[in-house]
Amino acid sequence: MKRIVILDTWINDTNLGNRLIVEAVERTLREVFPHDFFYHVPAFEYLRAGRTLVKQADHVFLAGTNALRSDMNRFSEWRLRFTDAFRIEDVILIGVGWWQYQSSSPNLYTKILLRGVLSKVYYHSVRDSYTAGKLGTLGLKVLNTGCPTIWKINKEHCDEIPTTKAENALLTFTEYNQSPNEDKLLSDIVTRNYDTVYFWPQMYGDYYYARSVSGGNLTYLDPSIEALDDILKREEIDYVGTRLHAGIRALEHGRRTIIIGVDNRAVELGRDFDLPIIPRKEITMQLEGRINDTWRTEVKIDEQAIADWKGQFRSE
Questions:
Q1: DSSP line for 121-144
Q2: Which CATH number is associated with domain 155-292?
Q3: What are the backbone angles phi and psi of residue 36, rounded to the nearest 5°?
Q4: Strand ranges (DSSP E) for 43-167?
Q5: 77-100 pLDDT, tens per residue?
Q6: Which uninterrupted H or E stretch holds 8?
Q7: CB neighbours of residue 117 within 10 Å
Q8: Do domains 3-148+303-311 and 155-292 have the same CATH topology?
């Protein structure tokens, strides 16, 4: 019987999207290790009480999100001290991505840190090809699997997603990536084309930003995963919004989805796996036509890469 530690990117975080990621990570790992003990250790604070669990673990997994960057001496959401390069080893990535587009390669500090902390034996699962390229410069073994939140969205699943517009829509905005003019245009287009538009706040500031952009034109949902799942289950609804993981959740529920790409995560997942993405700067040209056209959802997950990543643990 093994001890599995998940370095949890939802504990002490304010973004419900990270909870969605961690849920998908744990669901996946329990498929791979169905008879073993699981423990959660916070990834967004320095190791203290969790250090013993990490030391005792048979496997330690970092759970998704954009936790890596080229200059981890400046800032990193994954809280690591430089001395951790010599105290922690064999962490395995699952669905992890790069912070943002960075023209520079990982600096010497980051190279030493990540080469010390990350496994050199196991393949790492990364979110996109951009991240794979960055980690490849460190000599690590990498598979571009996409985020575990998309691993169930295969062709058979996509075939069940409606191809025409629903009567109602679910809208989201992003508090830390605002563009008031474009977001007002997004709101206007959605409210013009749907009977009822619901709004789900993934972070605290999303609600107040939506109020400033859309006012009373929206029906506001509670800020919980349960409220998100409830509306996606009970309503014939389209998703149109800037929140990537709320959009992926809508796809999981079989809802027609248009994700407005506002950062590298959406752009790279769209490029690598054909997620239904429209860049925010192209709302004027594309969005209204996309809403009213008939089209198929054709997400193309890399099932072989996913199987290879899972399979490396099955011979143990």
A1: SSPEEESSHHHHHHHHTTT--EEE
A2: 3.40.50.2000
A3: -115, 165
A4: 59-68, 91-98, 124-126, 142-144
A5: 899 998 888 888 899 999 999 887
A6: strand 3-8
A7: 19
A8: yes
Q: Where do the structural domains in the chain lie, given as residue ranges? A: 3-148+303-311, 155-292
pLDDT digits (tens, 9 = 90+) for 185-212: 999 999 999 999 999 999 999 999 999 9
Task: Give percent of the chain above pLDDT 70.
Answer: 99
pLDDT at 99: 83
Structure tokens at 112: 């030493």
Distance, CA of 43 to chain centre: 16
Tokens describing residue 114: 């990540």
Kindly report, residue by residue over 10-60, the tens digit of the pLDDT.
998 999 999 999 999 999 999 999 999 999 999 999 988 888 999 999 999
Tell the residue number behind the tokens 């009480």, with chain if given.
Answer: 49
Say if domain 3-148+303-311 classifies as CATH 3.40.50: yes
